[in-house]
Amino acid sequence: MSSIITTQLTTTPKQKPATEQLGFGKHFTDHMFIMDYTEGQGWHDARIIPYQPLALDPSAMIFHYGQSVFEGMKAYKTAAGDVQLFRPERNFKRLNASNERLCIPAVDEQFALDALKQLLAIDREWVPSEPGTSLYIRPFIFATEPFLGVAPSKNYHFIIIMSPVGAYYSEGINPVKILVEKQYVRAVIGGTGEAKTGGNYANGLKAQEIASKEGYSQILWLDGKENRYIEEVGSMNIFFKINGKVITPALNGSILPGITRDSMLHLLKAKNIDVEERRITIDEVVQAFEEGTLEEAFGAGTAAVISPIGELKWQNRKLTVNDGQIGAVTQMLYDTLTGIQNGTMEDPFGWIVKL
Ligand SMILES: *Cc1c(COP(=O)(O)O)cnc(C)c1O
């Protein structure tokens, strides 16, 4: 793979949105990174170009069989004006793990990180600086070969686009209501649940649509075989605090290994809070609720960092968590992780990568 990245700068820079208009994933920076894969040649033609639409053959395999993977990460601007990333090497490592599962050729992780840093340097002014804002980064790879046969594609694009995003919690963190799903499943062991691939999301839309109509903001997914073991919440990993102990489902092959999840585990251990990675059933959560030991529950992922759970609906029961208020450990984890990410707190873990 050639390590040269050519650069073509835009001649028509866009107007940057005002902070209040940011939202999530609606605005995109002036430039994008793209490189191509051709069988026999490998990855080639790495380039940074003005953000623009793509021209693809209607028979491009991505449109038909969904061979694609993606990542999600953020860049933050500190009060001192530095731009920094949070554990970005983990994202590119996971990208290759997803590639492996989807029969997509691996990318050079160091090269991908260097490419991202070059893109960030060019679009540096797009990293918002208001508290709670960040630049969301979306690397993705998809099959471009024009062919309707079912087989791994011989051609791919690897693209990185970036989007300035607003504060997820502009009016303070409000715990959300969650519907525990018993009909649909997100993933099964042996499937693609461990990979960050679009198909997992397409598969989850139906249950999410039904939950939204009932006034619930996310689905709590149970395992695909016995419909008992808790897996994830929406597109986040899930944590419970029961009787003083923090519990998160152990990675089992169908759960996405979140980098936020891993960071929470490190933070909890550093704070000497008991934490367990193990199987946990919905019945155990119901029992804890009945015994008054279900103390806190929250989802964890890059976009929201933490989303506290105020209510769980399972069959005909409604389980209220911590009176619908955010719990003390949840708040501490949120403050600590966001503090490290935006540079207001020290990073004893070596997680921050400065531009
Ligand atoms: C991306 C993702 C997560 C969270 O991963 P992070 O690395 O923490 O952002 C959790 N579950 C699913 C299904 C995901 O796609």
TrEMBL record:
Protein name: Branched-chain-amino-acid aminotransferase
Pfam families per the UniProt record, alphabetical: Aminotran_4 (PF01063)
Catalysed reactions, as listed in the record: L-valine + 2-oxoglutarate = 3-methyl-2-oxobutanoate + L-glutamate; L-isoleucine + 2-oxoglutarate = (S)-3-methyl-2-oxopentanoate + L-glutamate; L-leucine + 2-oxoglutarate = 4-methyl-2-oxopentanoate + L-glutamate
Pathway the protein takes part in: Amino-acid biosynthesis; L-valine biosynthesis; L-valine from pyruvate: step 4/4; Amino-acid biosynthesis; L-leucine biosynthesis; L-leucine from 3-methyl-2-oxobutanoate: step 4/4; Amino-acid biosynthesis; L-isoleucine biosynthesis; L-isoleucine from 2-oxobutanoate: step 4/4
Entries under CDD domains matching the protein: BCAT_beta_family (cd01557)
PROSITE patterns membership: AA_TRANSFER_CLASS_4
Entry keyword Methyltransferase: no
Family: Belongs to the class-IV pyridoxal-phosphate-dependent aminotransferase family.
Enzyme Commission number(s) from the entry: 2.6.1.42
Gene3D superfamilies, per the entry: 3.30.470.10, D-amino Acid Aminotransferase, subunit A, domain 2
An MF annotation (GO) of this entry: branched-chain-amino-acid transaminase activity
InterPro entries for this protein: Aminotrans_IV, Aminotrans_IV_CS, Aminotransferase-like, B_amino_transII, BCAT-like_C, BCAT-like_N, BCAT_family
Keywords of this entry: Amino-acid biosynthesis, Aminotransferase, Branched-chain amino acid biosynthesis, Pyridoxal phosphate, Transferase
Required cofactor(s): pyridoxal 5'-phosphate
Domain of life, source organism: Bacteria
Protein source organism: Lysinibacillus louembei
